[in-house]
Amino acid sequence: MITMIFACDERGAIGRDGDLPWNQRTDLQHFKRKTLNKPIVMGRKTWDSLGRPLPSRRNIVMSRGEVEGVEQMDYDEVLALAQESEVVIIGGGEIYSLFLQHAKEVHRTVIHTQVEAADTFAPDIEGAGFYLMTEQHHPAGPNDDHAMSFQHWIC
What we know:
single chain, globular, Dihydrofolate Reductase, subunit A, 10 strands, two-stranded antiparallel sheet
């Protein structure tokens, strides 16, 4: 099964200049809970932004070129892995678009802000046939820039 997870602003922005445009510790903890002990798939730019493998997860990078220090797979290999276990797509924009048609669940965090000069955007999950199952609103915690809403979508 393929699951996707991302945080976006109120207009769907997920990145600016190769990085997250906010600091949201509460969302990072949510991300960890949803991805722990699962294979995570990302593009090279997301891998570069992390700077290291995420612990207790099988880190997989999709790239047109070689990437040192991490397992690489192509599209068909990721789809085959998803037949055996849940695979979580963690970004970026191109990788989300590539796997949207195969995803069965999306964990979306809406960060209640609007990012100026965003250059990477989340896929349109509503237009792809997903519907909202649950939504939990959270005020900004002591290490969060903004309030947020955790949403669980299924297809």
